[in-house]
Specification:
Layout (H helix, E strand, L loop, with lengths): L4 E6 L7 H14 L4 E6 L1 H4 L9 H15 L8 E3 L5 H9 L5 H5 L2 H9 L7 H4 L1 H10 L5 E3 L5 H18 L10 E3 L28 H9 L20 H9 L4 H10 L4 H27 L2 H29 L4
Parallel strand pairs: 1-2, 2-3, 4-5
The chain binds tryptophan.
Length: 328
């Protein structure tokens, strides 16, 4: 049976943190054998919230280095920049006719952004963010979209656009699949202050953090405020460090939980254990990263190769769209 196709992407905003890893990248890596995967650098999407383009190139390179270092394999999963495949702009125009302004205004992810970033004058392009994302997915006929939880509303809009196109222009057989979102158990990893891990909140651990930085950051992490002295009993269920143990040290969680509750395990020791587990995960990633940092051409080659694969798929889809829409 043919493998199902994955399409997923991230905006290039720089180095990735553990929240990005756990929420999406780890999943991409785990799924790359089972699916036919395509991964896109959503560089146009950056412009929806930041018009300055100075950092996009560097941020793209940093992000792709993280993808590669964490284990995404370009032979299995082509990686490409959205802006290098011009079919995105064309299909964006066509899709923008298939969804109402009111529907886009109801998008909860947009509402959250408008609130968090204090946006007073929403642009047409920002309102259309999910339309461009629908293009990203459907141009490659993505069926499965592994993303963080905040992206599910965009996948719902993608399904609606696919359905609308199919009804209107291809009632006999669907040109576009209705893709499904796939989220992980830790789709929203908390940051070091217990809030959502996010670069803008300064509460992240980066995949590229050196071991001593990780240890230092964890030392400052918030734990149960009632566990003041080492031997006070703690409440793992409200402790952020315990959440990290569950994710990064699953074999010892029972022991950590008992130690914390009984008061035998102090926070300092618990945090050090946690840091060392995270460093075990990160150290091979860091090492591969160094190699790419010293050979940036390799990273650029990965993109150029990926773009040539992606372009063929995009062209084929657009030919089909043109035929169905009788656009000559
Ligand atoms: N909007 C996604 C995010 O902010 C990034 C993205 C762009 C994406 N295009 C995509 C994710 C297509 C999945 C599929 O994380």
């Amino acid at each position: 049976m043919a493998k199902k196709r994955i399409l997923s992407g991230m905006r290039p905003t720089g180095k990735l943190h553990l929240g990005n890893y756990v929420g999406a990248l780890e999943n991409w890596i785990n799924l790359q054998d089972q699916y036919e995967s395509y991964h896109l650098v959503a560089d146009y999407h950056v412009l929806t919230t930041d018009l300055s383009t100075d950092e996009i190139y560097n941020n793209t390179i940093e992000m792709v280095i993280d993808w590669l270092s964490a284990g995404l394999d370009p032979e299995k999963a082509p990686m490409f920049r959205q802006s290098k495949i011009k079919e995105h702009t064309e299909l964006f125009l066509l899709f923008s006719m298939l969804i109402t302004k009111a529907r886009l205004e109801r998008n909860p992810t947009l509402k959250e952004q408008v609130r968090d970033l204090n946006i007073e004058n929403l642009t047409y392009g920002h309102l259309g963010y999910p339309v461009l994302q629908a293009v990203d997915i459907l141009l490659y006929k993505g069926e499965v979209v592994p993303v963080g939880e905040d992206q599910l509303p965009h996948i719902e809009i993608t399904r609606e656009i696919a359905r609308r196109f199919n009804q209107q222009y291809s009632p006999d057989y669907p040109v576009f699949p209705e893709p499904e979102g796939k989220i992980t158990q830790f789709a929203r990893l908390p940051g070091l202050d217990g809030k959502r891990m996010s670069k803008s909140l300064g509460n992240t651990i980066f995949l590229s953090d050196a071991p001593e930085i990780v240890t230092q950051k964890l030392r400052k992490a918030v734990t149960d405020p009632l566990k003041v002295r080492k031997n006070d009993p703690g409440r793992p269920e409200i402790c952020l460090v315990f959440t990290y143990h569950q994710k990064f040290n699953s074999s010892e969680t029972k022991e950590i939980e008992n130690g914390c509750r009984s008061g035998l395990l102090g926070c300092v020791e618990c945090k050090l254990k946690c840091a060392s587990k995270i460093n075990e995960l990160l150290s091979p990633i860091l090492e591969i990263r160094r190699g790419y940092e010293n050979n940036l051409n390799k990273v650029i080659d990965v993109l150029i190769q990926g773009e040539s694969v992606a372009r063929k798929v995009a062209e084929t889809t657009m030919n089909e769209v043109h035929a169905k829409m009788k656009l000559g």
